[in-house]
């Protein structure tokens, strides 16, 4: 017995995880796929009806889907681009500090660990047109006030600002960890060779940090595509449909309208979008890294 | 000597500017959280009054309301049960899996676990909801704990695998020669030596489960609703009670923030895991 256990230990050790994944991940995805070809309102009396590709046709001819699709992509691109630039810049600035690093890290840690729903609520108050801090500041400096989350014109950028506040620290902390992993001797020798501050950053730090920065971008892209908590807790996708991304749209179809078939088709599309973006990004990352290595 | 004195003012000036910039960035980071904290101690009249932005008479009325009128005690207990349950189960499942990946190069499994991290969780939740409804299990702790495993399990494996991998094989081989089984060496050698990594992963898993909103939104019932749901339900009450809402927000984020400050080193290393290895 003991011998058998020892010999098959790698299967015994992985079995719980594999069973969990098969049961709770693989099977549900296949179920969602099957459901996406059906029409069903979660009613016990009315059985599922096979409708072929109708759900997909319905989705792709619906402008609400395409709005949500492009909103998801744009949100991710804009938020992650700004977060990367800001995060890397702040990390390069703070990388020189050797004292008080604990306090600095803690301050940057807080936005990303704070409960998203609570963060959403605070920003709802900050963005409140009459009593909020945002308009108070605008009024103080004499700029026109904004409706922020209350208008379909400004809700998108208001949400991106929250995302930037919450997640720039993630890029910054990852790059900071990368910087402390580099060691000081590289810079010393470059300084001896007469490199100035700018050259140090562009020629030495950034290329050496490229893998770390790319990793941070990947993690951010994956999570930004899936943004749910902040949007749903502040606007539930509104005003109208103006802040719906694919995640919110799928959620609403499934759990507000109970269009289980259509929601499943949406989820399959969403799933494919996230997977394609992740794979494309990893291919790109491998290519960039090869170039830096050679 | 003279030379030194001439450089100094410029250097001090640069340094001052540098620190002002640093402090400003840090302040911007903290403003929303400080805003939340201060509003939670204000009456609704004071929140609406811009002149009372910094100077006001603090009140704990909001906090009393959160626990009496909105009965937050039950959601706190629910959140504790779900977060603890998910973290313990994720460790039970994830630690052996991480060991197998580190020692036996189970790269396919590691790729699958990475895929679970990437795939939007809501993709699994529609079938889960349907199945749990059929089994009459929606609104149970079990369903919430299992849902949170979707996040916690990949997290534990992702963070702990490199720790296991960095422990020299020779240590274990010596134990095997002395007649120890793989299971024994896993418990006696690998786990204690990886304790910081496991601790890090467990804290993060707890925080993520504590913060999770989507799973609770779909799977919890009124008796098992967790804190994020309780806070979210706040705004469905008639006019928004901002003071109470901010007090509720402090109640939910407070523990996470205290833990993060106390265990900053671990939390940062967990969140930035994979940064250096690439």
UniProtKB/TrEMBL annotation, chain A:
Which PROSITE patterns has this protein been placed in? ABC_TM1
Statement: the UniProt record of this protein carries the keyword Magnesium:
no
Q: Where are the transmembrane segments?
A: 12-33, 73-95, 107-126, 164-184, 204-222, 263-284
Give the UniProt subcellular location, in the record's own words. Cell membrane; Membrane
Coiled coil start-end:
none
Keyword Transmembrane among record annotations: yes
Which part of the chain is the ABC transmembrane type-1 domain? 69-281
* Pfam name, any one: BPD_transp_1
Q: To which protein family does this belong?
A: Belongs to the binding-protein-dependent transport system permease family.
What is the protein name given in its UniProt record? Answer: Sugar ABC transporter permease
Q: Record the organism.
A: Jingyaoa shaoxingensis
Upper classification of the organism: Bacteria, Bacillati, Bacillota, Clostridia, Lachnospirales
Automatic annotation (TrEMBL), chain B:
Keyword terms of this UniProt record: Cell membrane, Membrane, Transmembrane, Transmembrane helix, Transport
One Pfam annotation reads BPD_transp_1
Q: Where are the transmembrane segments?
A: 12-35, 76-102, 109-132, 144-165, 186-207, 213-235, 242-263
- Does the keyword Transferase belong to this entry? no
Q: Which residue stretches, if any, does this entry annotate as coiled coil?
A: none
Topology term for the membrane: Multi-pass membrane protein
Which protein is depicted? Answer: Carbohydrate ABC transporter permease
Which species is this UniProt entry from?
Jingyaoa shaoxingensis
| Taxonomic lineage from the root | Bacteria, Bacillati, Bacillota, Clostridia, Lachnospirales
């Amino acid at each position: 017995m003991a011998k058998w256990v020892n010999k098959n230990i790698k299967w015994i050790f992985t079995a719980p995880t594999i069973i969990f994944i098969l049961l709770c991940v693989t099977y549900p995805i296949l179920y969602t796929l099957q459901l996406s070809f059906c029409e069903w309102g979660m009613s016990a009396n009315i059985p599922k009806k096979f409708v072929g590709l109708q759900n997909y046709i319905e989705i792709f001819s619906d402008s609400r889907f395409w709005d949500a699709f492009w909103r998801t992509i744009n949100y991710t691109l804009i938020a992650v681009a700004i977060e990367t630039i800001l995060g890397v810049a702040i990390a390069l600035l703070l990388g020189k500090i050797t004292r008080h690093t604990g306090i600095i890290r803690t301050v940057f840690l807080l936005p990303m660990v704070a409960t998203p729903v609570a963060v959403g609520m605070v920003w709802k108050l900050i963005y409140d047109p009459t009593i909020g801090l945002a308009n108070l500041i605008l009024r103080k400096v004499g700029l026109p006030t904004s409706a922020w989350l209350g208008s379909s014109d400004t809700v998108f950028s208001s949400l991106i600002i929250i995302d930037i506040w919450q997640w720039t620290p993630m890029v910054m902390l990852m790059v900071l960890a990368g910087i402390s992993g580099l060691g000081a001797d590289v810079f010393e020798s470059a300084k001896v060779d007469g490199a100035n501050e700018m050259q140090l950053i562009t020629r030495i730090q950034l290329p050496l940090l490229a893998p770390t920065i790319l990793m941070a971008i990947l993690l951010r892209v994956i999570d930004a595509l899936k943004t749910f908590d902040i949007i749903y807790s502040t606007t539930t996708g509104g005003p109208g449909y103006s802040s719906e991304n694919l995640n919110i749209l799928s959620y609403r179809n499934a759990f507000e309208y109970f269009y289980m078939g259509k929601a499943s088709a949406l989820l399959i599309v969403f799933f494919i979008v996230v997977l394609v973006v992740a794979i494309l990004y990893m291919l790109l990352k491998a290519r960039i890294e090869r170039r830096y290595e050679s | 000597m003279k030379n030194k004195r001439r450089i100094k003012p410029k250097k001090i000036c640069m340094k001052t500017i540098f620190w002002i910039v640093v402090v400003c960035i840090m302040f911007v980071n903290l403003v929303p959280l400080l805003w939340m904290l201060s509003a939670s101690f204000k009456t609704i009249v004071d929140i609406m009054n811009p002149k009372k932005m910094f100077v006001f008479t603090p009140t704990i009325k909001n906090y009393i309301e959160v626990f009496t009128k909105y009965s937050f005690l039950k959601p706190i207990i629910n959140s504790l049960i779900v977060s603890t349950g998910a973290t313990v189960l994720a460790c039970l499942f994830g630690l052996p899996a991480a060991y197998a990946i580190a020692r036996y190069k189970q790269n396919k499994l590691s790729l699958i676990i990475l895929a679970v991290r990437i795939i939007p969780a809501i993709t699994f939740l529609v079938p889960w909801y349907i199945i749990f409804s059929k089994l009459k299990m929606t609104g149970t702790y079990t369903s919430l704990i299992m849902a949170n495993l979707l996040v916690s399990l990949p997290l534990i494996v992702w963070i702990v695998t490199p720790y296991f991998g960095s422990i020299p094989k020779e240590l274990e081989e010596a134990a095997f020669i002395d007649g120890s089984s793989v299971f024994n060496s896993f418990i006696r050698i690998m786990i204690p030596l990886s304790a910081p990594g496991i601790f890090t992963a467990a804290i993060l898993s707890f925080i993520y489960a504590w913060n999770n909103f989507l799973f609770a939104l779909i799977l919890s019932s009124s008796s098992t609703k967790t804190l994020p749901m309780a806070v979210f339900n706040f705004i469905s009450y008639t006019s928004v009670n901002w003071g109470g809402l901010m007090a509720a927000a402090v109640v939910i984020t407070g523990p996470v923030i205290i833990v993060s400050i106390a265990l900053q080193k671990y939390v940062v290393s967990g969140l930035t895991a994979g940064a250096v290895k690439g």
